Amino acid sequence: MAMWNTYFWVDSVDEDASKVRDAGGGTLMEPFGFMDAARVAAFTDPEGAAFGLWEAKEHKGARLVNDPGAVVFNNLNTRDVERAKSFYGSVFGWRTGSIGGGAEGWTLPGYGDWLEHEHHPGLRKQMAEAGAPGGFEDVVGSIVPIADDQPDTPAHWSVTFATDDADATAAKATELGGAVIVPPFDAPWSTPTYTIRITVIADPQGATFSASKFVARNTG
After folding, report:
1. What are phi and psi of 86, to 5 degrees?
2. Do the beta carbons of residue 83 and residue 39 sit within 8 Å?
3. Using CA atoms, how far apart are residues 168 and 183, in angstroms rounded to an integer?
4. What pLDDT is stored for residue 123 in this prediction?
5. Full strand arrangement of the beta sheet holding 38-44
6. Is 166 within a domain?
């Protein structure tokens, strides 16, 4: 089955593999060297959501994020939010914070500083002016509770790419042979000062992903 996989950059795959097992995770693929690019491994969390670890060597992973066409979010779809918080907190040191509208995201202290320095000067000011919750710039992923009316949906990680126009992206995907799984809509964690327009798409092989546009509302 075609799918997008999520890898997390770590200092040592072997050390973090032990943390995963100690926290109740399972092993899909033991650590191994992937040419000169990285040392990698694959695991599942206690609920069965698969993810990879990436100890970078020559390949440093995503060098561009948040801009149109680049990764903007990785999303954990889960039925047990508290168990997930315990697992990922103990393995990666992640915390959780508000992303607006009562929704939660994974935060990594200092991530916003790195983004502002490396990619987006003035990021914190831009986020504050858009009305984003405090600490939003440190968010590295979202937590998506799986609804009770989706009993066949397993826990999983999914990926979201930024776009200039979610509606146009959905239309283009259909034109190119893909399918729109969820038509463009304003995410429930939108606020009076900003909205996130998002759509869920499947490529011609069936691999699904989301595309989203962060839009500051005109409150004037």
Report:
1. -65, -45
2. no
3. 11
4. 79
5. 7-9, 50-56, 38-44, 26-34
6. yes
Specify whether the CB–CB gap between 74 and 159 falls below 8 A. Answer: yes
Based on the domain organization, do 99 and 20 belong to the same domain? no
Q: Same structural domain for residues 91 and 172? A: yes
The alpha-helical segments, DSSP class H, found in the chain are 13-22, 81-92, 111-118, 123-129, 166-175
Of 55, 52, 59, the C-alpha closest to 13 is: 55
Residue range 4-22, pLDDT digits in tens: 999 999 999 999 999 999 9
Do residues 46 and 104 both lie within one domain?
Answer: no
Q: What is the pTM of this model?
A: 0.85
- The full DSSP string for 111-164 is HHHHHHHHT-TTHHHHHHHTTPPTTGGGEEEEEEEPPTT-TTPPPEEEEEEE-S
Asked if residues 72 and 162 have their Cβ atoms less than 8 Å apart, the reply is yes
d(CA 99, CA 194): 11
CA distance 70 to 95: 24
- Are residue 48 and residue 20 in the same domain, yes or no? yes
Domain that holds residue 21: 7-56
